[in-house]
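Sequence design from tokenized structure. All designs in this work follow the same two-part layout: the structure record, then the generated sequence. An example of the structure record is given first.
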């Protein structure tokens, strides 16, 4: 049986103490420490970036010579070292206007608005992940990396199989900072 939901857990408290906007930053820190994703001077695109904790961390890591761009349906309060835009990632025309031609890293901690019906929520997660992959096909430099949060469920194995057919390297990672009851897993794809 999963542990009960704790809204202000140790990760949330740590984020507040360290000045991050959300506990999810520790998932990105784990990913970065394990896979060495973020480097000074690189261009990074964060899809589904609100409230901005991933942008905060990424902007620090790429430094002043790097570029960090966040896109979300919700407006993001300004973050030093990051550009933010309100746009739907499935709207190609909107993305054409705001995104650079090529990026070295695409991050996506996107999650669907949940209905409470596990199969529907998991399928919505797969649809969002496919939308992120569509952006990655257009914008990722050769050798670039795309990191996507996906909810595990009935459609996950098929999603992973399809990804392995198209991408040079596909790995999965479960973050310790994820909530105990979460079905989320991160998929890393290298072009």
């Amino acid at each position: 049986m999963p542990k009960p939901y704790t809204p202000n857990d140790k990760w949330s408290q740590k984020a507040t103490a360290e000045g991050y906007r959300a506990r999810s930053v520790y998932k990105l820190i784990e990913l970065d420490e394990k896979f060495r994703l973020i480097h000074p001077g690189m261009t990074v695109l964060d899809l589904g970036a609100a409230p901005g904790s991933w942008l905060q961390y990424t902007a620090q890591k790429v430094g002043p010579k790097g570029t960090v761009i966040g896109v979300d349906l919700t407006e993001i309060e300004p973050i030093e070292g990051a550009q933010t835009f309100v746009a739907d990632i499935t709207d190609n025309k909107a993305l054409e206007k705001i995104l650079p031609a090529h990026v070295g890293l695409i991050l996506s901690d996107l999650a669907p608005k949940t209905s409470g019906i596990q199969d529907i929520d998991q399928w919505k997660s797969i649809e969002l992940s496919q939308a992120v992959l569509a952006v990655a096909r257009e914008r990722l430099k050769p050798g670039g990396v795309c990191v996507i949060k996906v909810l595990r469920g009935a459609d996950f194995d098929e999603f992973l199989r399809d990804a392995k057919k198209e991408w040079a390297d596909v790995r999965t990672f479960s973050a310790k900072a994820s909530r105990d009851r979460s079905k989320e897993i991160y998929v890393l794809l290298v072009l």
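The first helix runs from residue 10 to 18. We note this feature because it recurs in several other targets discussed in the main text.
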